[in-house]
Amino acid sequence: MGLYNEQVLPRIIDVFCGMKTADQYRQRACAGLHGRVVEVGFGSGLNVPFYPAAVTEVVAIEPSDTAWKIAGDRVAASPVPITRAGLDGQSLPLDTGSCDTALSTWTLCTIPDVATALAEIRRVLKPGGTLHFVDHGLAPDEGVRRWQHRLDPLEQRLFGGCHLTRSIPELLTGAGFRITEIEQFYEKGAPRVLAADSLGVAVSP
Fold this sequence. Notes:
Layout: H1 2-17, H2 23-30, E1 35-40, E2 55-61, H3 65-70, H4 72-77, E3 82-86, E4 99-105, H5 114-124, E5 125-136, H6 142-158, H7 168-174, E6 178-186, E7 196-203
Parallel strand pairs: 1-2, 1-4, 2-3, 4-5
Antiparallel strand pairs: 5-7, 6-7
């Protein structure tokens, strides 16, 4: 992966994704989580303060050792037990139907084989289990989309494979999820090419 991706990028992501402006979106994405939660792309634990009281356990999937190390204080302070159970969202080391809910925040944009990862999330969710998500992706406006396609190769190089041009709703429905709640918007104060967000809940049949 190289020094940049292994050591530098997780720290950059912790700072930029940890900005207070994102807290409202994290809180909304976490609302409704309950029981055993699988969080794909746990990162440095920025969602930990927003887990509802109904959450009994969090199974963290995170490939970066550096991000997990940064998360140490947040994990230690959490009233909810958090276990790092795997490194790869494309292959979850969990039993079928073993999780009540799932969480993904700004992660679906980066997983190399996102269709496989979503299939894995569906597998480990109980029937009727919900995936709570917020992610940036393809913008609703054609002018913004044109710039996203131009900048996508640079985005991938700088941010560990992150894509600007994935349609989050299409990925979810294509994986067999049924979207029950969704809001699409631009994050205030951020360049639109980077901040066309989809936030909502999708149900696994």
